[in-house]
Amino acid sequence: MELVCPAGTPAALRAAADAGADAIYCGFANETNARNFPGLNFSPKELAEGVVYAHAKGAKVLVAINTFARAGNIDLWRQAVDDAAACNADAIIAADLAVLEHAAEKHPERRLHLSVQAAANSPEAIHFYADTFGVKRVVLPRVFSVPEIAALNRDIDVETEVFVFGGLCVMTEGRCSLSSYATGKSPNLTGVCSPPDHVDYREDKSGRLLAQLGGFTIDSFEKGAPAGYPTLCKGQFSAEGRTGYLFEDPVSLNAFELLEDLSKAGVTALKIEGRQRGKAYIAGVVSGFRRAVDGLTTGADAGPAIAALKSFSEGGRQTSGSYKKTWR
Question: Is 233 annotated as a binding residue?
Fold first, then answer.
């Protein structure tokens, strides 16, 4: 299986390539990219240089142009597709119909991957994208069990890519409006979930630190306790007399123990989340999963390397996510 790794900066791209990534996904520094955060992402020049570096290491570069273009203002998305092709990227990851159509018509030689933002989770939906735009791979939403992925693969003839490590969303990929509600900026249109310019930390009268987003208190912490970034879906809220993580626990996915099952289910590629993470995270996680994937054929034990990844996990906690959701 192919190991697909994140890069939010040119330095992270080089770290991923050096650590053994088979493919590296990244995006431009604008609204076409679902990780459009200040200080991250690539200019066309940086992307072109990154592609040369990755190819020299034997790795592919996949460019995420995976937000949804706005009616009457699609030129930015078209330009991003043209720039990715000019930079010799190996594939474009997209979700928007207009972006997919532009890429298929203007750059038919370029592979098209369907972004998780499209939330395509049925054979019928995947057949549509494959038949209409020539999509070669679909990144599956984080809602499937392994048997469901196996069943899906039996009904489609395109490659499937699944997440195996990193942060989780609330399983409404491409349709979440929580951050938009709080800040007025949409993850799906402008690529910014819980944008930093809407983040604020302040103490209340009792000395507790309040983490706020768009004026909403997302979480509170005892004085001196480490405070997490106020991502709205991972905040603590009170409802019906109970206080807790109402939408999603602050925990990272780790599907290491399921790699063999995913291989048997027909999965082509394994995706690591984390384009907002630094070089140490990239190098550590990619190296660990490189050993794990290679171990499927060599028999080498990657357990210690994977165990060391707990320090990179959100809140120091890990889960197998929807692969083993008990409510299923």
Answer: yes
